[in-house]
Amino acid sequence: MSKETTGKKRVILVTDGDRIARQAVEKASGNIGGRCISASAGNPTRLTGSQTVELIKSTPYDPVVVMVDDRGSGKKGKGERVLEYVAKHPDLEVMGVVAVASNTESIDGTKVNCAVTRERQVLTCQVDKKGQVISSLPIIRGDTVDVLNELGQEIPFVVGIGDIGKMDGQDDPEEGARITTKALELVLEHWQSR
After folding, report:
1. Is residue 25 classed as helix, strand or coil in its secondary structure?
2. In which band, very low, low, confident or very high, does the pLDDT at 1 lie, cut at 50, 70 and 90?
């Protein structure tokens, strides 16, 4: 279902926003024919939910990729509040979330449909910050992902991934941000197959 049939702007959310992640997400968004809202980057997220929605609506590109980041907070931080606002907004259609692993303590984590490893393998598993498989459980533990458990059907597809733009150089933006690109492609493929 395209924007033309729903009238809604399509959005992919990414739960990371530091400087290197921003470079990787910008590169990967271009690789899939979308556009990243660069102003949504920040560690933590600097924009409010309403500011983010205005930027999404103002871009002519589709899909729009938005970054949200809690800067390691185990509580519901700025990034999660923006994610929740965007996911519930009636004028937007969230295609999916690229959920990033972190070392944050005291978090539940969230279920993923699949994960992309540092070798760009697509598996039903848990990956760590380095993009390495650490369990066969289909979950991700990160500082900006617990809110996904509350959103249910507003988030149709979740891809787990390691630390965007890093993973020991495997996701280097200057090398095409291949792992992040793969994660965004998986969200698109799932959306198109619905």
Report:
1. helix
2. very low
CA distances from 29 to 7, 46, 118 (A): 21, 20, 18
Task: Assign residue 99 the CATH number of its domain.
Answer: 3.40.50
Averaged pLDDT of the chain: 92
Within-domain flag for 88? yes
pLDDT at 104: 74
Q: What are phi and psi of 159, to 5 degrees?
A: -110, 125
Do residues 71 and 143 lie in contact, with contact meaning Cβ atoms separated by under 8 Å? yes
pTM of model > 0.90: yes
Contact assessment for residue 145 and residue 136, using Cβ atoms and an 8 Å cutoff: no
* Residue 132 located in a structural domain: yes
Q: Does any domain span residue 49?
A: yes
Query: Which helix H or strand E contains 160, and what residues bound it?
Result: strand 158-161
In this prediction, residue 101 carries a pLDDT of: 95
Does residue 90 belong to any structural domain of this protein?
yes
Provide the residue range defining the domain that includes 158.
Answer: 7-192
Count up the domains in the chain and report the number.
1
Question: How far is it, in rounded angstroms, from Cα 93 to Cα 110?
Answer: 20
